[in-house]
Write a structure and sequence with these properties.
single chain; alpha/beta; ten-stranded mixed β-sheet; 20 strands; FA58C
């Protein structure tokens, strides 16, 4: 750090700096899909044998992708929580602490991408930056397919996404990146889910100006590419070195004109510090003058924020991530870029992660979220992201004290949001096509119906993580087809899907068209992941029936 401190303000005049730091935070651009939003880096680069990916093998799981990942053949330092993924692929790692086989996911499975984007929706991640490395080699067809899968998931779960080119080791990027955009990736901008800022499709180019052998490019071809994308009508983000403004340390000199050509600047931070004091040092000596430089030139500023490297013990059960979010929001950043969503390779993922050694390969030396002695739920860093997003948008007061507890029960989902919408369901059984998925589809006209003349019956929803809930809303289809009836049912809850306690005892619940065939049941707040309704009677039909199950936080 000390090498940069003396010249940290060199590129910004005193007048510009004072004006930027004493005046109100302002953005060069109005709120859009990246300004005023939480963006997350999405690799989507994991493949496994048998998943159908053109690249074949254990892509990004193993150093030798033609051999299964193991402690001696791996690229990862963290282990994903696999409980919500419908398909896993057996590895050569030791069994988990529970004795279960050690399995990993494939990003090529659409269900994996759908699950990730559902997590983004549920935790305030507005926009995904889909990483795209040199697509002209053997990974190109798989990258192309992943772009289509991400588009589908973003459309389905109401998220935005944009293409983020990484030019690392891309020798012929100057011509090939233009060809790739013109012939393939620009077609994605037709999607309503493709991110736009200032009315223009967003594209990011990451890697110009970095001072390392993988990016040896001179300024001229880099500036040409930036200006070309702008001429195509794009809003262009630059993923730039930490010390971009000064041209020292990780930045090559002579690139300032390239950096200033971007519409938004997003400096890299991963690996730069692992301490709270380090984050504060960067806030004062790097981020503040960075923002001043951008504000003075009408450039939007999107700093990188990170949860910390789990494998190196940086996280401090959420305090590191919250300090980074707090510092960048009080700075007046126009948007935030979270690095990363699914980066299990570098240990800075926010996606759901193994909580303890019980769900981690035994003896493999992989740290779980409780590595510092504090138990953290697998969704903890997603929940911190959700609260950070609220703080960025002014929905949560600016606070240096992390409001998000390591286990669920504090500030989490908004009280008015239905936690059950679109979640996985299960049942004791159903007739014809009246399956349990109908109770979470948002359509009061569709419904679940249990086998007839066979009480008791049950139906349940998996909320994905234990959350303090206090109310459920039950619905049947409205008139004219459905008249009044009373169903005898109990509301039960579980944190593990095996042992259920009673949230609301069995009682007659009156569904009446006069009240929209809707019943609301409240109960004392209880941490619950699985919400089950147990039916033992129905005056209107000899079966359990339900159109919608809505679940709300306490």
């Amino acid at each position: 750090m000390s090498a940069a401190a003396g010249s940290a303000l060199a590129a910004v005049s005193t007048t510009e700096l004072l004006a930027a730091l004493t005046g109100p935070a302002s953005a060069a651009s109005p709120p859009g899909d990246v300004v005023g939003k939480i963006s997350v880096g999405y690799q989507g680069w994991f493949a496994c044998p048998g998943d159908g990916a053109p690249i074949g093998g254990w892509w990004h799981w193993s150093r030798d992708r033609f051999q299964p990942p193991s402690p001696s053949n791996t690229t990862i330092v963290s282990w994903p929580d696999m409980r919500e993924l419908s398909r896993g692929y057996p590895t050569a790692y030791p069994n988990l602490g529970t004795g279960a086989p050690a399995e990993l996911f494939s990003s090529y499975d659409q269900q994996t991408v759908d699950t990730h984007f559902r997590w983004m929706r549920d935790h305030n991640c507005d926009t995904a930056a889909l990483q795209r490395f040199n697509p002209m080699g053997d990974e190109g067809p798989t990258r192309d397919a992943m772009a289509a899968k991400v588009r589908d998931a973003a459309e389905r779960f109401g998220r935005k996404y944009y293409i983020m080119y990484d030019v690392t080791s891309w020798t012929n990027f100057q011509t090939e990146i233009k060809t790739d955009w013109s012939t393939k990736m620009s077609a994605h901008t037709a999607s309503a889910a493709y991110a736009r800022q200032n009315g223009r499709p967003v594209v990011c180019v990451w890697g110009f100006g970095f001072n390392d052998p993988g990016r040896p490019f001179p300024p001229a071809p880099c500036l040409d590419v930036v200006n070309w994308f702008k001429a195509q009508g794009c809003y262009v983000i630059g993923g730039v070195p930490t010390y971009w403004r000064e041209g020292i340390n990780d930045s090559r000199p002579g690139f300032l004109d390239v950096y200033h050509a971007f519409n938004m600047i997003s400096p890299w931070m991963v690996g730069r510090t692992g301490t709270l004091d380090g984050l504060d040092w960067f806030y004062t000596n790097v981020n503040q003058p960075d923002r001043a430089d951008c504000n003075a030139r009408g450039i939007d500023y999107q700093p990188c924020v990170m949860p910390g490297d789990l494998s190196s013990g940086h996280r401090r059960h959420g305090d590191f991530y919250w300090r980074h979010l707090y510092n960048m929001i009080r700075l007046g950043a126009q948007g935030l870029y979270v690095s990363m969503f699914d980066e299990f390779n570098e240990g800075n993922q926010i996606a759901k992660t193994s909580e303890t050694q019980a769900t981690t390969p035994a003896g493999a030396g992989i740290r779980a979220l409780d590595e510092d002695g504090t138990f953290c739920s697998s969704d903890y860093y997603l929940r911190i992201t959700a609260d950070g997003g609220r703080m960025l948008k002014g929905q949560l007061a600016l606070t240096p004290v992390r409001p998000t507890p390591p286990v669920t029960g504090g500030p989490g989902p908004e009280p008015g949001r239905n936690l059950a919408a679109g979640r996985p369901t299960s049942e004791s059984g159903h007739v014809q096509n009246y399956g349990s998925g109908n109770i979470v589809d948002g359509n009061q006209g569709s419904y679940w119906e249990s086998p007839n003349h066979a009480f008791p019956q049950w139906v349940q929803v998996d909320l994905g993580a234990a959350t303090a809930i206090g109310r459920v809303v039950l619905k049947l289809p409205p008139l004219p087809a459905w008249g009044a009836r009373t169903q005898i049912l109990a509301v039960r809850g579980s944190t593990d899907g095996a042992s259920f306690g009673t949230l609301s005892a069995s009682a007659g619940r009156r569904f009446d068209p006069a009240s929209g065939n809707t019943v609301s049941v409240t109960f004392p707040a209880a941490p619950t992941r699985y919400v089950r309704l147990e039916f033992t009677g129905n005056t209107g039909w000899p079966a359990g029936q339900l159109s919608e199950l809505e679940v709300y936080p306490s």
